[in-house]
Protein 1
Amino acid sequence: MSDVNEKLLVVSDLSTTFATAGGPLPAVANVSFDLNRNETVGIVGESGSGKTVLSRTIMGLQPRTNVTVTGSVLLNGNEMVGAPESFKRGLWGTEVAMVFQDPMTSLNPVMRIGKQIDETLRVRLGMSKPDAKARAIELLELVGIPSPKQRYDAFPGQLSGGMRQRVVIAIALACSPKLLMADEPTTGLDVTIQAQILNLLDELKERLHMSVVLVTHDLGVVATRTSRIIVMYAGRIVEIGSTRDVFTNHRMPYTRALLESSPKVSNASHTRLITIPGRPPNLLKLTEGCSFAPRCAYATDQCHQDRPELRPADQPGHSFACWNPLPVTRGELAS
Amino acid sequence: MTDTTQPLLKVRDLKVTFGKGHHEVSAVAGVSFDVYEGETLGLVGESGCGKSTTGKALMRIVEPSSGTIELGGTDLTKLKRGGKQLRNIRTHMQMIFQDPISSLNPRRRVKDIVAEPIDCWKTVTGHDRDVLVSDLLSKVGIDPAVYGNRYARQFSGGQCQRISIARSLAMRPKLLICDEMVSALDVSVQAQILNLLEDLKAEYGLTLLFIAHDLAVVKNVSDRVAVMYLGKICEIGPADALYEAPAHPYTEFLLGAALEADPDSPMHSQVLEGEPPSPMNPPSGCRFRTRCPNATDLCASDEPQPQEIAPGHQVACHFPLSVTRK
């Protein structure tokens, strides 16, 4: 019991399977991890790796039909899997809130932004109209929107993408959640605006003592802002560890491929990129073995036949799922 | 090296204006640059800076309102719209767009998509045409025997972008304009396409104008880089030099905001505040002055003209960083 109280979020053996015309689609399979209070964890992966479905499953936002969720999500001691909607509704906003990728479609285009923040405050916290308005203006100020009193009456269409994302963050923070799920919060924003939003999230996390799950495809976003990173591939965690271990001592070939295939500003121009052949697998046609095996340079017969489970690396908290892991670079450096 | 005396593409004071009167927006407000044969010029900037409009105006997909665009000595802006001469010269320049899926007709077969430019111009016919199409598809890594008869809708984004590249090469163009061609792709696929582009550039002797918002991607492919802000080029120079020592404050902010996939990379010490002003009502003088920490009265009254601070490195700023810091 005490263990549960320490961790804000405990996900164990979580699987989300969609029933499709082509058969069951395992979007998330056997995912386990936990999250401390006031910690930022990054979930990275390419499109289709299951990172968004995972974050929505943690929120309890999966569709009502054609989906099977097994395993457990303990959020501050509350079981989310199988919980009735009314129960989850009680946790949304106060325990957990979400910032979605597209700031345009997550706001109602024909409703003034102030009203959209008010709504949360009045429904969830039972505030009176004037109190809610005052608090909404405070929140707009908190997320760095200039002249919040005037902006309270603006429609989403009158704001830029970066400003809209700030409004979405304000709504998410309205009821002071303990956990903020940010699903690609800066994708689609310009680099200078992205830096503003990421700094804002960092600052708010400290001020409001939140935990943050930062879901992204961009390794640059998580490199300096997370304490731990989860790498997903084809619905499974393939590597998990401290940010430093994942970046410098990764053991899973996919993690390395992901790191090395992204161009870097610090590299000279015309640096040849290291690529992995092929593309992520079709989740409807997964084989018995490791999902990455068809693209992996180190794959052996064992990789094609048996799926590797996560196993611990030499650093505490660092695990990887691979039969033929990369050598430990730290050991090489020491010798 | 390449022939650096004669630029393949010479753009002078290009302007593109949309709307009229009250609603007039100058998306491109006087842009001049050269692209030399065999080089890749990267064009980088944030959304709304006019980089895509510049690319489209070069092809005359949108009409420039003034300025000249010379490709191999012919001024494209003088040619009649929809006329034979313009159609002719367009075979020398091809464009690849951002969204690979919507750039291809989902109901056509891959080999017909690639063959379309050839069939339009009847450069080769019959058996030779089929051989050329198969060759183009193999060059971009798509097996023509297996996939040639499939429909475009059956392919992933990365494969569609490969097909777009094959189509753009069908007329053996001199200049390829790539508008955000990898921004919709996953990193592992993006790396494949960028490497492919470098290979094809060498093989076909292509000259590239590479438009993108991602600074790391632009540096990776470019010999020279031009940085745009609010319809104007604020800095242009050799890629490595410009990234190493940016001279325009905006370039420095842009580079400072770029995120490196490295836990040891410094956190952003200074972040550019605010957002770009509306191009409908740009600031007087220097367009960046409203967000620039070094701005003075001079910046508000006089528009800075491009000045050369090193060979081939020009900056439009009254107080270029590398000079003032010395």
Protein 2
Amino acid sequence: MSPGGSAPRIAWRLATVIDVVPETPRTRTLVLNVPGWPGHRAGQHVDVRLTAEDGYQAERSYSIASSPGDTRLSLTVERLSDGEVSPYLSEVLHAGDMLELRGPIGGYFVWDIPTGGPLFLVGGGSGIVPLMAMLRHRSAALATADARQRLPARLLYSSRRWDEVIYRDELARLAEKDPTLQVTHTLTREQPEGWSGFHRRIDRAMLEEVAWPASDQPRVFVCGPTPLVESVASSLVELAHQPTLIKTERFGPTGGAV
Amino acid sequence: MPPFSRGFLGRRQSAATAGRLPPGQYETRDFPVLSAGPTPQTPLAKWDFALRGANGQIARWTWEEFTALPRQTTTKDIHCVTKWSKFDTVWEGISVDTLLSEAAAKGVASSPFVLARCDGGYTTNVPLADVTGGKAWVAFMYDGKPLPPEHGGPARLLVPHLYFWKSAKWVRELRLMENDAPGFWESLGYHNYGDPWREQRYAGDE
Amino acid sequence: MNSASSESHEPVVAGERLADARRVDGNAAAGILSEVFVQDLTAARAKCAGCGVTRTIGTLIVYAHGMGMVVRCPGCDRVMLRLARTPTHVWLDSTGATSIVISRDAS
């Protein structure tokens, strides 16, 4: 391991908020300009640091939502009722403000085209964020129907209610344009009238129905609250998926950074 | 100095409580849970508490014996090194003075240092002088109810005049020692003593 | 931390474990580890000094809060890494990991 080699120490940078985009009643996306951004891989995150005037600091991690090819960096933040940082990022911060961050961070929970597929993504709540970066990357990088056919993808996404589904419309558009992408939702608390989809927490039976068969050796990424991630990962192993092909990121009890 | 985040206030103290707050602290009405591992779940039938002397003598109490000892109720402010303070917390338990005198009657000799040892492997060290003279308890009730597991139940050490990492959760033994031995956080950059009023958070402070 | 004792009484390590909602995984340790190591450590592999199993650091169990992070083996619960950050230093205790293997290829 040579210091100062090909992987420089991750430095704090000052980003400018370009835009703030509401996603759901409790989440919004911060679109940032980060001078000198070295690029990232889908699945990585950044650490964000806030400093009050008296020097008090708070740090939290947020998954990068944008595709590696985007010129802007996007973070999607969920407002947690007892959060210290999330209320600031989801309510106070606005375009023109500065935000200190460092990254990209993470070499384990990452996916790019060369990793291959088929791709199976399982998300709960704000766990969708790094998975969305992967789907955006896939969509941008696979230009032809042929290329997509060779690397098909499925997303199983658990949310409490229809209006809490982050990126709902974009996911619908992506799936509509691309028959090799299948998006399946499950709504665990309330469903809109006429809902014919899943309406329970992800369990083994649902995974058996939705996932690629284990024999296809899909690359699996699971992200969300700790209990969901652990339950999904165990169920997939019970369904004969190889543990080494299942990558997990636990967001903790609330499904995201506090 | 890092740039300021416009409009970020973090936690703020109210003027009314300023006098009760050690330097660098803010008041919380919550009771945050900080854990170094999974919450231990020791059944009361298997639980016991030990006071072990450097001479090898041990005094031990089962849950029934322990809770039958003369107990005290105390109301204290508590201060966490992560900067939150909580006022007027009400605890019920056995004073460490009581435990030491009961143990002395069983031949457990005194020593100048104490190491608290807990289910899950956590340890913390305190001078004997800081757990005697009415300064410390082994508490099993909080706010009038049995101490919940996430807050250290069945019983935790309570040493409120020091930073709250010294009030070891899931305590099972106080080991008296001739020499001081740094515990879990004390051996990882935190202050060996931890007086919130002198803001002794980290090794090398003051 | 747990010293050997000839006495039969030792503090009991966790009976029935609760589904602990406060735990996350090694991905959460990446930022603070980047202050110690040049290479990203989430894809590195660490061998548990307790049970001897080698796992990717991103899959280890992390208990993280304001005081620091405790990284535990998902198999035997042994503490593999302990991390604390003071205003001036990062403290790392890796005695619970017999070895850590990091790929030199940054990609």
Protein 3
Amino acid sequence: MATDHRRDFIRRSLATLAGSAAFTALPAKLALAQNARPMLRGAGIDYRALVCIYLYGGNDCFNMIVPRDAGYAAYQATRTNLAVAQNALHALSPVQAPIGGGQFGMHPEMRGIADLFNAQRAAIVANVGPLVRPVNKTTYQQPGTLLPPQLFSHSDQSVVWQTPRADTTARTGWGGRLADIFFSSNANPTLSMNVSLAGENVFQAGQTVLPYFMSSSGVERIGMIETGAANCADGGQGWNRRRCLTFNALQNATYAHPFQRAYANRMRATRETTRMVDVALATVPRNDPVFQPFWTAFGLAWNATNPPELPDLGEQLLMIARVIRARDALQMSRQLFFAGIGGFDTHDNQLTDHGPLLRQISAGLKGFYDVLAQPSMALTNQVTAFTASEFGRTLSNNGDGTDHGWGGHHIVVGGSVIGGRIYGRMPNLSGNSQTNPDDAGWGQIIPTLSVDQYAATLATWFGLGATDRAAIFPNLQHMTGSMLSIPGPDLGFMQAV
Amino acid sequence: MGRRHRAAAALALLLAAPAALAQDAIFADGFDNRPEGPFTRAEAQRFLTQATFGPTLAEIDRLLAMGYNAWLDEQFVATTSRQLPFLDQLIQADIAANRPIDVWQDKRQEIWWRNVLSGNDQLRQRVAYALSQILVVSDQNGALEGNPTTLAHWHDMLASGAFGSYRTLLENVTLHPSMGHYLSMFGNRKPDAALNIRPDENYAREITQLFSVGLVMLNADGTPVDGNPAQAGVQPVPTYNQDTIRGFAHVFTGWKYSTCIPPNTTSADPNNNLNWWNWEYCSSQAQSVSGDQDWRLHEGWRTPLRPWGEGNTVRGEVYYAHEGTKQLLNYPGVSLPNGVLPSSSGRTAGSRARHDLGLALDNVFNHPNVGPFIARQLIQRLVSSNPSPDYIGRVAAAFADDNGAAAGGTRGNLRAVVRAVLMDPEARNLAQVPANGGKLREPLLRVSALWRALDARSRDGRIREGWPEVYGAQAVLRSPTVFNFYLPTYALPGEIANAGLVSPEFQITTDTYITRLTNELGGKVYWAWIGNTGLGSWDPVQVDLSRDLALADQPAALLDRYNLLFLGGTMSAGMRSTLLAHLNDIAPNSWEGWRRERVQDALWLILTSPEYVVER
């Protein structure tokens, strides 16, 4: 009886998947690409993961990476009371200067990233932002120029950053579309290839693949039906078995309303996945000394019995590291993770509020990298972390903060990053909006690299072929010409693995 | 008269409800119905699901007796259940007892729960909750997290304005110190070219994008205007551009606490008398109060902001940008020529900032988008995620003119808008609800519905439910960002998105939270019940199972009651037979708690079922 039930359950799940509109709506190009893709089956073989660190609110990257040469004067004149002190910057010593030259330093709270950069394990990608077509100040001001919709709006630009489809209102993310292609590389058909530590996001939403959501404290089960000897689906005789069977019967009934189906599907997928993740996480406890570099990076004392809590992003990256360490148990060979922290919308109190956030990014990523570098992990070349944020902020100052901008700098960390370099061109920091050639009009910097290029470079490293790349990033073909600091589909900051 | 309506009701019932459910227990009335209905208990239940924090048996019968219109008229004038007096009372008690003041955001949540669970102004509180998700401020903000009283005052402002003018509400929102801090309009300065300082655009951007007109021009039914019908698809027309944002940003300058010390003399000498530190470090404490007053009692946090220097005819509003014209919204029929606010430098100093603010808010309020933009969101919060354009159009028409087709009406009367939302055929008549109508219930409303239906209470009357976001991903005035707990446009990827539907509440229905809320409802049903000795000294809100324990030996009758209370009589035959078999399986006398187990299982299995969780 119980075995039959289980089989029923699986059959129903498959039927749901095959019959759903989502499956049939898969674009023809993608469906074709899917037939031709390499199958990377097998646990632990050729592992590869991307980790997106989303900075909610629009990070002020012009205070994150600051000129430390003669260029500092222009920066200081523009930023006035918001300027970061020149002598407090951590010097960056690139093996290759950015286009247009200049020497730069990292924000005083970002020692960890500066060290990774100087060890060629991190790169900076300069002035990236959403574009439909490359633009400069002249074309920006011309009527009829194709521009991303609703520039400077949080909600819209964060969607465009994650899709990146500045030409449409489509809401699938590039990570989701990537997973639509690669999810069957994983031997595990249950756990989503995309795991989010920071809730719902556009980046990981595909046509068929939905992310699995967990929290940095782990996963939880439904106590009223999943405690006891065994859960009902496995035929156990636990004290809550009867309730569990009725619960399942109600969830698994046929429903007329799409919301009812969606709710029941989510409940079913959650329970199945959670059971699996829970078991796997037990094999990689939080206090395993392999994770100690996180505490070192944050300057916190390690305690093998009960390590103290890390700042938010630290805990998220720690949980990602644990899931990666459990990859064999989970039978995952391709994964996309999403972490995120908020607070970057520094309209006011920027000097007080911004530093601690940058510190979380820096210490979090340094700890994460060092964990991957532990001999028992040895995954630095297999895992790449990168930042994303809806926009950079205005060069100009509103008294004690900055407003919504456009282009911004981003950080990529990992052993496969061709690090120690600043890719692209750093923008002109002059505060004169009229004469600054990079200024769209009010301190908002026109991007000289597109999010499409940034994302496609990462996706290519992940294993995406040229044909699929054109399907996933349809605007990439337009990212050519001299208005971009680096033209073409690949910015060159990732090695092939 | 009464007879004819009963006949109509019976017909509607045949059309709308599964015949198997047409049982006396649910549908019998015995009242002389009002012509507009409700005609059945099931209809009354459905209305109360939309208009209150959860139906009770008593309220279902009361509504059935009163009729919708009388009930609405009663609710429109019901006295506001306020939050601030409760917090002030706690603070004063701590002060009187000479102990540290233990009043934080959890106490603000407590008085919210108390009001929504037992307040007589249910509709007012429900609309205030909806408004709090459109006009967002949040305690997840450095300036507000330690200040529960200003947020209580904010909520009281929403509740007391829930049936007033939207224009008034916009002004109260703009000038509230909570909003001033949340979106940094407070202390926003006029431009200073020498220092490369220009006005902060935060509030300018969100009042337009989120509180009034949205990003694209709308037709009267909420559909986007097509800027180029010749081209395939809809080409949206932006409502504003960056110049507009800059214009509004300049208007929203110069405002500080009402308690600030203004420029301290009427002398025209700019060198002596402009004490900038009075602006920069001005106090929220009333100058009439001596000594150090706790910030939670400060007058400046509970009175509208004021332009610094207002009324000073010589110095004027020193930090207000009165020079220069300001581009505001431009739209057909705009009253300022081309939407441009002229410079107010010709006006008497000290009267400029407020004058310009008034014109700017009029400019926002009269934009044709406001009706359909706000209508859609109020419908989404109260009735359905995907209202038809006709439904939005009808509610927007009520926004445009509360007098309907007759002349002499008023724009922006929320009382008329709320009535239109709730009395629309698409809201009232189940037979007219589209196949995809309704919405996913919000987590807080799932908890409040349980507690109200089972008269839940703690032993000492307090409500210790200060952090519901831990299980529900939402708590009142605790959104993670100004974009609320979910976006009104969020579409769950897959079937829902592909069908072109939106499903805001699914944005917080992640693996983590679907599990936590399911568990939490389990705890509230199986653990927190009155009489459970296992609670020891812990005193949470507890459901009262006693009324329903009396039906434990009649599982069919128990299910009928819960079908009415929670599902408005719409429980499917399949769900009913599954539950009935389950309850009958819990054999009498097998152990002493079998009665309770039947009631608890019925509750929890219904409250977590897809049929209940999606409200139609």
Protein 4
Amino acid sequence: MAGPAWLAPREVLRILLGGSSISASELPARDIVLRIRLPRLLLGGIVGASLSVSGVLFQALLRNPLADPFVLGVSGGAALGGILVLGFGGALGLGYAAVPPAAFLGSVATALLLFAVAGGRGRLSSTSLLLTGVVFNAIASAAIVFVASLSGLAEGTSIFLWLIGSLSAARESSTLMVALFLLAGLACVWPQARRLDLLALGEESAAQLGVDVERVKRILLAATSLMVGAAVSVSGLIGFVGLIIPHLLRLLLGPDHRLLVPASALGGAIFLILCDTAARTALGGGELPVGAITALAGGPLFLFLLRQQQRQSLLP
Amino acid sequence: MSEPVLGFERVSLRLGGRSVLRGVDLALHAGEVLGLLGANGAGKTSLLRIATRVLAPEHGALRLCGRPLEEFSRAELARRIALVPQRSEIPFPFTAAEVVRMGRAPHLGLLGFESRRDLVLVERAMDEVGIRELAGRSILELSGGEQQLVALARGLVQATPILLLDEPTAFLDLRHRVQVLRLVRALASAGQSVLVVSHDLGLAARFCDRLALLSRGEVLAAGSPAEVLTPALLRAAFGIEAFVFRAPDGTPVVLPEAPAPAREPSLDPQT
């Protein structure tokens, strides 16, 4: 509940708890808390949870702890879907409400491509993971800039915010929608948590332990695409949340997905709220895109994990 | 003999255009240990993958307790056949005990949580395999042999009537090999049927009731160790010359012929 305008914690608490005792002099403060900070906080939490859980799912599916929707380029695909609707949707009579579904489709398409690249063995080596991610991201950002230039979206800063990832452009109405996508995704995923553990043994061993691997993959693909699509459509490309949080939580709680999935939702929410608060307050009056902060935190961690992996030569 | 618990009937398989199995007939009976021998690439592992329905045969059929294999759901199959793979690379730091616990997955209820009984079975299996002290260690830190024992314990807790072991002793020292194979014998005495792929002909002869020799996707011979381990069959399957002796109890002992003698040092200064 922090922000550039100073409000005493007690005051904030009183406003949140409601009551009719708010005086006229407190009205601006009330607006700040209820209209600006609370929705922003909720949105940050929901986006953070979605990205973090998606990271867990991609890591389990590709059997590589370096996977993350942003690194893999799936977020990029979702962003491209969203931008296409923002840029050209008007001509087809599609409004802002069509952006999340389009981002969902973009995310599904990218994830399917990714699995096609991963091939039948169901494991993406770190090398292929990095290469496909780099290429997907390059294609997606080029296409985004292209679409934005053609459609006139490139003017102003919205494209910049979309590419670097920020919660500031979000509309209030979108919070509910993202929350629904997240809940739907979690509802699909949590019952599969034990099967995610078994997938870590390899697809054949999982199948041999009674898992219908193809079915589980389809469910997880739909769930991650829902969550990534929703998160990207309101916040653009916020990277590395799905890498940082699952990694930290695995260290703290172990890799059991029955615990890791809900814990990652919570951890991702807290993490992105903290990052967003830092983004809003670090420059005083101005605001940093939160994606810059998560990338500054996550990039080095990614490199560290990669180095660790190479040393263990766990993955080729 | 009674009906086999697992029967391969004229099973053929092609992988990537290559014929891997050709008309394989093989039967695993209740309470027996059947050793599957053969050169690398002879099709042993493919046979196991067909039995767990990871691969589908091109021709032929499999019968599990008399019923076609396709009639079983994945979960039903997982409660009847356990496979211990040669190796599995696990990318996350699960502890050894957690990995063994995964073997209970086919028996868990809707919520997917283990009961007290499941945990007791896990402890017992780890004791039987002799890896109690590894329980809390991360699977990523274990040696190849230790990982193999963990996988074996996972196969045990699956508590299936049929156990398929793919070179379960490949990474083990002799003491652990003997320990594992004694355990396999004990399981068979308790009624489990075990199909074990092995490259160790001596141990296979010692611990298996019957052997099947696979060569280029075909069953060259199947029968008692003495029937299968003959110089002629070994030559056909492995392309080696070998002596076959008898241990005092009659078990065949295979000794490959000495390597081709090094060329006599020549006295001729011209060469």
